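Researcher: Batch entry, complex prediction.
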Amino acid sequence: MCGLCGVILNQHWAEQDGGRRARVFRAALLDRVLDHFGLSLHDWAGAVYVLRDRKGAAAVVHDIGAVWSEAERLLGRPLDPLDAALVAELGR
Amino acid sequence: MKTPVVLVTGFLGSGKTTLISRLLDHPGMGETAVIVNELGEIGIDHHLLRRVDERTVLLASGCVCCVLRGDLVDELRDLLDRRDAGEVPHFGRVVVETTGIADPTPIVMTLLSDPVVRNHYELESVVATVDGVHGLRGPESVKQVAVADRLVITKADIAAPAGRAGLEKQLARLNPTAHARAATFGEVDPDWLFDGAARDPRDLAPGHDRGHRDHDHGVSSGVLFLDEVDWTAFGLWLTMLLQARGQDILRVKGFLDVGGDGPVLVSCVQHAVHPPVHLDEWPDEDRRSRLVFIGRDLDTERLRTSLDAFDRAARQGRT
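Model: Structure tokens for the complex:
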């Protein structure tokens, strides 16, 4: 597993702010970003994230690092945060 | 307390071995274990010297930078066991010398990823030697400089002054977070190499994009100056950025104002992200976030616009 994904590391570096509220907020923000790419994400019992595309395909991911690689697999292409349309949408 | 590890990298013939040999002569370096790929050149009389055959293990993601140095994991674990058992002299620091064409990233990844290694060792600094006469030679040496915290410009006695001055400017453009110092026959003060602190990114002048892509194998650096940043938005943005462009982003380093009393120190080498450190206080009155990016095809304005958008989305979500 890649260092981004945090499975080798005990806890992903971007999720060390801890707490249920922080996790819920993170999931909501992830969902908003992923929505731009036709994907959705929700937190399942505070343990894992469930990622879905609009064709019904789903994947369970354990942390924020794995979200992007799994989303890339579902989508068939990388999700670029510099994407101009995404930036315009988020910045609105 | 974790044992500090110093990674010494540098291109073939740039003076790594000479540097390490001279360092080991210093009185304060007596309790240092050294791990090298090639034996024979380093004076080893009273030092713990181990040789390894480079063996890499590709991680499941298949990403080029996400490989572990299996040989290094074995060696570092073995050193721990033997130190605890009293089978080797006590050591308080480990120096790892890379081969001349090695990419240092897998070693950083190894130190951060292996559960036993990361619980007992911590990367203190990356030192890169640069040939003062021949300068940077190929993309390997450019990358070695990009990930370094300290740069030692070797052969200072025979390098032409004008050439050396040009090289120093080139290195400062390429990696503005690293301190550089010239050395003759590897003579460098160990305190300077091992104090563990890279250049404070807050010393950087605002608004510049550094690097001449034509001369530095497409690698350049840039600094983002930002106001307070939402930490959740930043974590999400950086993980996404590294997934999409981690091959081109060689280094990110800097301070981030996340609204606390002190900043968060952020440091990563490609996909290898050091655990962020929340500092208790700012070192001075200037509380702007500063992030240095070193990589290929960098456009700091696009990075800023994108991060701003993520930050705005997070703040809207909190209201």
